[in-house]
Amino acid sequence: MAADITPSVTRKRRRTARATGSASRSLWSKLALLVGAFAFLFPFYYMVVGSLQKEPDSSPSGAFPDPGNLSLHNYTAINSAISLGRSLVNSGIFTGGVIVCTTVFGLLAGYALARLQFRGRGTTFALVLLVQVIPFQLLMIPLYVLIVRDYGLADSYLGMILPFAINTTAVFIFRQFFLQLPPTMFEAARMDGAGELQILFRIALPLCKPALLSVVLLSFTGPWNEFLWPFLVTKRQDMQPLAVSLANYISTVASAAANPFGAILAGACVLAAPAVALYIVFQRRFTSTDLDSATKG
User: Which stretch of DSSP H or E encloses residue 244?
Assistant: First the structure.
């Protein structure tokens, strides 16, 4: 009888030990993730706190400020210096134009490379990938000569948007997504007499919402934070995006400000807020679409 009980007790002890070890590993993993999240978020927290301090405090103790030292004065100071509203409008128009162009051209090119059969399709896709390894700075001088001198688009939204109108990353994302769609769906639509544009906009586009959202979010971050190209093509202050206006403030006005450190951080908070809000709102939308439902029946 004792011999029958002993293996059962041993197995229970082993299961208990495994469960204890698994719980311990899970606890340490959560602690490591918590530490990593704190290290990642602390600069953002410090930026917000610094933007609210009336008297700057760059020491470590500045991360825990006195409530009496907090106000919105830095935001009013940076607004009076560079006109935050106008700069935000310029950034919004610039970014919105880039998103529209990137999405439309990326959608068309991605569909063509994924679902149309034509000579040189593989070579074209290889060139698309090759463009990704060419740094934008290498093309900046010829682009400046072409857009500013030849086209006369200095101090214009079109001049800022054109170099970013086509994004090879968007083309790649749409192509890979369209390749995952069932080929029978496209063949059935063609047999019913649908044209390629009808197939794209009525069948493929409703299914590619995850890819569409990914392209929009990726296209937003680049132009919203872009500094160098708008700095080159815009000389008028009322045409400059927020990133360029902040850089000009740092180089010209900040030295004479009462609290330049806080004003710069206030401008950085305004610049970062739309991107952070966009990712928080849409982070749960990165889900796969049920493609099987499109082929049933």
Answer: helix 242-248
In the three-class reduction of DSSP (H, G, I as helix; E, B as strand; rest coil), residue 133 is classed as coil
Q: What is the distance between the alpha carbons of residues 47 and 229, in angstroms, rounded to a whole number?
A: 26
Measured CA distances, 262 to 52, 75, 209, 217 (Å): 7, 8, 40, 29
163 and 102 Cβ atoms separated by less than 8 Å: no
How far apart are the two ends of the chain, measured CA to CA in Å?
Answer: 62
Which of 101, 123, 103, 104 lies closest to 113, judged by CA?
A: 123
d(CA 168, CA 218): 12
Burial 35-67 (b: 16+ CB within 10 A, else e): eeeeeeeeeeeeeebbbbbbebbeeeebeebee
Can you tell me the distance from the alpha carbon of 96 to that of 8, in angstroms, rounded to the nearest whole number?
Answer: 67
Which tokens is 21 given? 């070890």
Per-residue pLDDT for the chain (297 aa), expressed as one digit of tens each?
444 556 665 666 666 656 565 666 777 888 888 888 888 888 888 888 888 888 776 666 667 777 777 888 888 888 888 888 899 999 999 999 999 999 999 999 999 998 888 888 889 888 888 888 888 888 888 999 999 988 999 999 999 999 999 888 899 999 988 888 888 888 888 888 888 888 888 888 888 888 888 888 888 988 998 999 999 999 888 899 999 988 888 877 666 667 778 888 888 898 888 888 888 887 776 544 444 434 444
Residue with tokens 């999405």: 103
